[in-house]
Design goal:
The complex is a heterodimer of chains A (160) and B (547).
Chain A: H1 2-18, H2 24-35, H3 40-50, H4 54-63, E1 75-80, H5 83-87, H6 90-101, E2 107-108, E3 114-119, E4 131-133, E5 136-138, H7 146-159
Parallel strand pairs in A: 1-3
Antiparallel strand pairs in A: 1-4, 2-3, 4-5
Chain B: H1 6-22, E1 25-29, H2 32-36, H3 39-53, E2 58-62, E3 74-77, E4 84-86, H4 91-103, H5 147-152, H6 157-178, H7 190-199, E5 206-211, H8 220-227, H9 229-243, E6 247-252, H10 257-273, E7 288-293, H11 303-310, E8 334-338, H12 339-351, H13 353-357, E9 367-374, E10 380-385, H14 390-397, E11 407-412, E12 418-421, H15 431-436, E13 445-450, H16 455-469, H17 475-492, H18 498-514, H19 518-522, H20 525-533, H21 535-541
Parallel strand pairs in B: 1-2, 5-6, 5-8, 6-7, 9-13
Antiparallel strand pairs in B: 1-3, 3-4, 9-10, 11-12, 11-13
Helix pairs in contact in B: 3-4, 6-7, 6-9, 6-12, 8-9, 8-10, 9-12, 16-17, 17-18, 20-21
The chains are: A alpha+beta (160), B alpha/beta (547).
């Protein structure tokens, strides 16, 4: 199904950025915003339409932490590992999430429901430690709040 | 809309000022930290309540006041009652404040934040807080999505003076008089960089705003981008005018979605008003600014890496010289300054370099914004004149360490900086003094640590960061960083011998001298500074350490 909408979407992206110099990264951002990651077949199309070698696209994708080659989970949890969060207990949060979800950093649960990762710093240091759940920044997260957070995510998906 | 001219700018300003003076308002901070603390629910509840009761008060969404520990923040100004700022406002509290303060005209006792009346008023070192807000002048004072609000608070007055009165040479002279040095951390005189670019041959030149705030534990730039985007745009325009650029780029990290939105929105408004694009304010100055996004690479804060990234390539640095002023973006002369540097420019042009230079110390002029976080009671953004002591920032302004603990050290400069132990906190802050202590000014991260924090752990944290963020291009950083990290782990696990310390010191020296860019050159700083001030902690875990 995704393939059906891919062609028009990416041609719009290409149209917008092709004439501007150095816009590969901007095009990749648009693609990742649309699909949650950069699918290989989209990279192939992008290479063709923007007239750049596929290797150029992959060297950029793999250099930058932000770009993903795998689809994200339905719920994405990022534990901030900035210095302030680190000092205020972020490692314990990450460990708890790893144990609860049985995944390592950067992995998705086998059912595709949760993706866990750590991020560098979301710049919310005044309210450390911080977890970003599905794009929403949660402040002053304690280890004992993790259970509730996961339950909320699971309930949401039942309501869907 | 009338065509933007110098007169029109002043007319909009006057109109906005009159309007503001007549308006009763409730301001709620909705920057990233406010939102994280639940500000959106407060905005909804308060807006509904105001509508339901048909109250003559405007609910405004504003940027970050810097008092992050007390988010969500709500400030109320209605006729007949003193203007009051409330902290830690939940939905219930907010509705109570509406009832008692807005409807009955009585500020709610016990909920008001003390001593913050004059935050956001430059020239008035606020009583009790010692802050002087130049960069943060408008953060929390206006709706960052409304250009009229910004104009009402003097946005683009500096650009007006630059265009109408100073001319490019005059702008650079004013910058020289101000003594402003780069706020990204390196502290290079801004006027000199601009002069180099102005004198560089060629007509195609570029201006870049480095908004890739990668230092973990710092968010000064996010605060300004989200809370007062026009301050940064105005600074960029003045810089472009002085140096002869017609194109500028904001390089913003992708992890700051709200900041990106705010800058893009502000650019659209400025363009529509004739403050950006062709013939700005009716002069022959033409300039456009665009946004380019980072993608999560700390090394892209380094200027040559950053330019590679804007060119759509891997963000790896290259040796300097040639410096960007000769050979920059797409090989053309380029200048890069940090967000905070640009945010200072408008007021410097409007009020003069001498005014700005009146703050600070002999060699470090003006103010500096710090993000004070970690084990501190009142974490947040603080702007103080240079020369203020570390203790005044951490203890007097931010309330010292929370709980029954004591300050052990303050870390400045992030992964490129070092720790400063508690006995040295009476040091006045300037580029030189912090460097003499083995740290750096950096971009403004200031992380407070108490006696429960292990310094070896801190050194490990930062070297781990640098190992992951090393781009891999040069061996000293790629290999040296990894070996340094392994040695630290060995030390922490109690398996190291004293000779490992010597090996680590040699590695540090090699990285400092031989790395290609700032990332590798400064990566040893956290290790060296913890060794310098907390060698005891290393001795304690090394068997057979000499007494």
């Amino acid at each position: 199904m995704a393939d059906a909408v891919m062609v028009p979407d990416i041609s719009r992206t290409v149209q917008k950025w092709r004439s501007k110099p150095g816009s590969l990264i901007m095009a990749l951002h648009e693609i990742q915003n649309r699909y949650g990651y950069v699918p290989r077949n989209v990279s192939l199309q992008l290479a063709q339409l923007m007239n750049v070698p596929l290797a150029r696209i992959y060297e950029v994708i793999t250099f930058y932490n932000y770009f993903r080659l795998e689809p994200p989970g339905k719920h994405n949890l990022s534990v901030c590992m900035g210095t302030a969060c680190y000092l205020k207990g972020a490692p314990a949060l990450l460990d708890t999430l790893k144990n609860e979800l049985h995944v390592e950093e950067g992995e998705t649960t086998p059912d595709g429901e949760f993706h866990l990762e750590s991020v560098r710093c979301v710049g919310c240091c005044g309210l450390a430690p911080v977890v970003v759940a599905n794009g929403e920044t949660l402040a002053k997260v304690g280890v004992n709040a993790i259970g509730g957070l996961l339950a909320r995510c699971r309930n949401e998906q039942k309501e869907d | 809309m009338a065509k933007m001219t110098f007169e029109e700018l002043d007319r909009v300003r006057e109109e906005q000022r009159e309007r503001t003076a007549k308006t009763s308002w409730i301001r709620i901070g909705t920057s990233t930290c406010g939102v994280a603390a639940g500000a959106e629910a407060v905005v909804r509840a308060v807006s509904d309540e105001v509508r339901r009761r048909d109250l003559p008060v405007e609910v405004q969404r504003v940027g970050c006041l810097g008092l992050c520990y007390a988010e969500p923040l709500m400030e109320v100004n209605v006729a007949g009652a003193p203007r009051t700022l409330y902290g830690e406002v939940g939905v219930e509290t907010a509705l109570r404040i509406v009832e008692e303060h807005v409807v009955n005209g009585r500020p709610v006792a016990g909920l008001a934040m003390p001593g913050v009346e004059s935050l956001g008023v430059p020239d008035v070192p606020s009583n009790g807080t010692k802050q002087v807000r130049i960069v943060l002048r408008n953060c929390g004072m206006l709706d960052p999505t409304k250009i009229e609000d910004a104009i009402g608070r003097d946005a683009y007055q500096g650009l007006k003076r630059a265009l109408s009165e100073l001319g490019p040479e005059g702008v650079i002279a004013e910058m020289k008089a101000s003594g402003l040095r780069g706020r990204g951390g390196a502290g290079y005189p801004t006027w000199l960089k601009w002069k180099f670019l102005r004198e560089a041959p060629g007509t195609e030149k570029y201006m870049i705003c480095n908004a890739d705030e990668g230092d973990p534990g710092a968010y000064m730039d996010r605060g300004v981008l989200e809370g007062d985007p026009h301050a940064v745009i105005e600074g960029m325009l003045i810089a472009c005018f002085a140096t002869g650029c017609s194109t500028g780029y904001f390089y913003i990290r992708a992890e700051y979605p709200l900041a990106i939105d705010r800058i893009e929105g502000a650019l659209r408004q400025a363009r529509r008003m004739g403050l950006l694009g062709k013939n700005i304010m009716g002069t022959d100055f033409c300039c456009d600014l665009e946004v380019r996004l980072g993608a999560g690479a700390f090394v892209c804060g380094e200027e040559t890496a950053l330019m590679h990234s804007i060119e759509g390539r891997r963000g790896t640095p290259r040796p300097r010289p040639p410096f960007p002023a000769q050979h920059g973006l797409w090989g053309k002369p380029t200048n890069i300054n940090n967000v905070e540097t640009f945010a200072n420019i408008g007021p410097i042009m409007a009020r003069g370099g001498a005014w700005f230079g009146g703050y600070g110390t002999e060699t470090s002029r003006g103010t500096k914004v710090f993000a004070v976080t970690g084990k501190v009671r009142h974490s947040g953004l603080v702007e103080i004149p240079m020369g203020t002591t570390l203790r005044e920032v951490v203890v007097d302004i931010c309330g010292g360490v929370a709980g029954n603990h004591r300050i052990k050290a303050v870390q400045t400069g992030g992964p490129s900086g070092g720790v400063i132990p508690a006995p040295l906190l009476d040091t006045p802050i300037s580029y030189e003094t912090l460097q003499a202590l083995g740290s750096i000014m950096g971009s403004g991260g200031m992380i407070v640590m108490d006696e429960t924090d292990s310094m070896i752990d801190i050194a490990l944290f930062y070297t781990g960061f640098c190992v992951e963020e090393s781009c891999g291009k040069c061996a000293p950083c790629r290999l040296g960083g990894k070996q340094m990290h392994l040695l630290l782990e060995k030390i922490r696990s109690g398996k190291a011998s004293w000779s490992d310390i010597g090996t680590m010191r040699r590695l540090c020296t090699t990285m400092q001298k031989a790395s290609l860019c700032g990332l590798g050159q400064t990566a040893p700083n956290p290790v060296l500074s913890t060794l310098r001030y907390f060698e005891d902690e290393y001795r304690a875990v090394i068997v057979g350490a000499p007494a």
